[in-house]
């Protein structure tokens, strides 16, 4: 019932939705990494780095948009950002996508890396994600790991508010939030949490009642969360979701246990991350899931049963998506993740692979795993100062009543010094079938070889 440990070829048809056209000398070209994806109605928008720069960011951020439920795609690159598109920055990073239903505007949040300071930008589209405006400045300073979300519940008193989370690297990764109430055209002041928390990789989600929850990875190896109940005017102190036990991926791969978060139609929050607590001695990670219905307390993490705890597989960097029309015991979940078939590998032998599982009962049980892409050698993906990079995050969008759509980087062997790594989507999406493999909460081991502190990760 489990995915085989050997590096079998992927068995999913994919459609390439973008490729790197740039030639600037700073970057490793024909590379695309670190996608985020969001869907609303029949529109799916993905954004990602194009032309990865070893020291941080990329030549630009690209987008791929489908207006017909993933049948066809239009690609392009954000204007007014880097020198490749008439903008002020040398490189751009950390793309995140949202849709504001009240103002009918798509938004892509990005981070200007080699700019004056390290600003957070927001690019806007009013034609369904097909063309984009020059960006507006969302936040200034030395920043990292921005993420954007909008309140799309018409009955919420904060319907139409959008929220961007980021951390301030010059202030110990202090967490900050900023709010827009006019479709991302302007943004309010930066606000700290009640306990002035710090961390990395926060992913805000909005409950139907308008409460914003923000799970993130703290500097002391915990997944924590904070909230706002007043439309972003203030942010409460953080609460514990769970401690993290984490196995660092082999082969010099750039990888960290950042959370991926989503919300269902009833307001239950879901957060997943890579964790080794279910494997004695922490030889590799599983993907684990915690849920909250109360905003302030979180259930103990359960193991997503992709394979046996005795397998050689190492799972990491998950991206969760939930059908926005479902909830609770009938919530339809899609979960995309990366893995090594053999955890104990080297830079020369590691096989980077992409998998997918689904649940139709809120994560109580899961489907057998599907191999979506790979295996890929690490030499097929660009290098950075922190190791080979496919992306610090991935995401999955599940259409209402339909299939799941992750957009993922898939590569083949380089041609000389030129890579062949571009963005792809499963053709027609991935079915959310669910299955009978039940999640587990039995903790076998809590050792960890996680890095001692967070590293700025442009």
TrEMBL record:
Domain of life from the UniProt record: Bacteria
CDD domains membership: Sialidase_non-viral
Q: Which Gene3D superfamilies match?
A: 2.120.10.10
State the species of origin. Answer: Actinocrispum wychmicini
Classification via InterPro entries: Sialidase_sf (IPR036278)
* Taxonomy of the source species: Bacteria, Bacillati, Actinomycetota, Actinomycetes, Pseudonocardiales
The entry's protein name is BNR repeat protein
């Amino acid at each position: 019932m489990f995915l085989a440990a050997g590096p079998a070829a992927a068995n999913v048809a994919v459609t390439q939705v973008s490729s790197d056209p740039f030639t600037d000398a700073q970057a490793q070209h024909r590379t695309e990494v670190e996608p985020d994806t969001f869907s609303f109605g029949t529109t799916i928008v993905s954004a990602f780095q194009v032309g990865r720069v070893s020291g941080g960011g990329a030549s630009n951020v690209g987008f791929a948009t489908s207006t017909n439920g993933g049948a066809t795609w239009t690609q392009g690159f954000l204007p007014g950002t880097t020198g490749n598109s008439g903008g002020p920055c040398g490189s751009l990073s950390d793309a995140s996508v949202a849709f504001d239903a009240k103002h009918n505007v798509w938004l892509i949040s990005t981070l200007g890396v080699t700019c004056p300071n390290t600003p957070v930008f927001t690019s806007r589209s009013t034609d369904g994600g097909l063309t984009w405006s020059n960006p507006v400045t969302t936040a200034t300073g030395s920043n990292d790991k921005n993420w954007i979300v909008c309140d799309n519940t018409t009955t919420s008193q904060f319907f139409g508010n959008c929220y961007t989370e980021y951390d301030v690297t010059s202030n110990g990764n202090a967490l900050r939030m900023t709010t827009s109430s006019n479709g991302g055209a302007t943004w309010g002041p930066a606000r700290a949490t009640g306990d002035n928390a710090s961390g990395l990789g926060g992913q805000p989600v909005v409950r139907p009642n308008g409460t914003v929850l923000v799970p993130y990875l703290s500097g002391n190896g915990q997944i924590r969360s904070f909230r706002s109940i007043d439309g972003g005017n203030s942010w409460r102190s953080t609460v514990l979701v769970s401690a993290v036990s984490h196995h660092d991926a082999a082969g010099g791969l750039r990888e960290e246990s950042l959370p991926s978060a989503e919300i269902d139609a009833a307001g239950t929050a879901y957060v997943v991350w890579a964790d080794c607590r279910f494997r004695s001695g922490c030889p590799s990670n599983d993907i684990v899931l915690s849920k909250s219905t109360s905003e302030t307390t979180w259930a103990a993490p359960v193991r997503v049963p992709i394979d046996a705890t005795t397998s050689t597989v190492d799972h990491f960097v998950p991206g969760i998506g939930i059908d926005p029309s479902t909830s609770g015991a009938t919530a339809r979940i899609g979960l995309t993740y990366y893995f090594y078939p053999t955890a104990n590998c080297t830079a020369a032998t590691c096989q980077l692979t992409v998998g997918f599982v689904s649940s139709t009962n809120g994560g109580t049980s899961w489907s057998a795993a599907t191999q979506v892409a790979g295996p890929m050698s690490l030499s097929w993906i660009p290098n950075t100062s922190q190791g080979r990079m496919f992306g610090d995050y991935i995401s999955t969008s599940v259409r209402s009543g339909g299939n799941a759509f992750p957009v993922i980087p898939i590569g083949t062997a380089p041609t000389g010094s030129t890579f062949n790594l571009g963005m792809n989507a499963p053709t027609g999406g991935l079915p959310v079938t669910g299955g009978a493999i039940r999640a587990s909460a039995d903790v076998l081991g809590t050792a960890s070889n996680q890095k001692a502190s967070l590293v700025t990760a442009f």
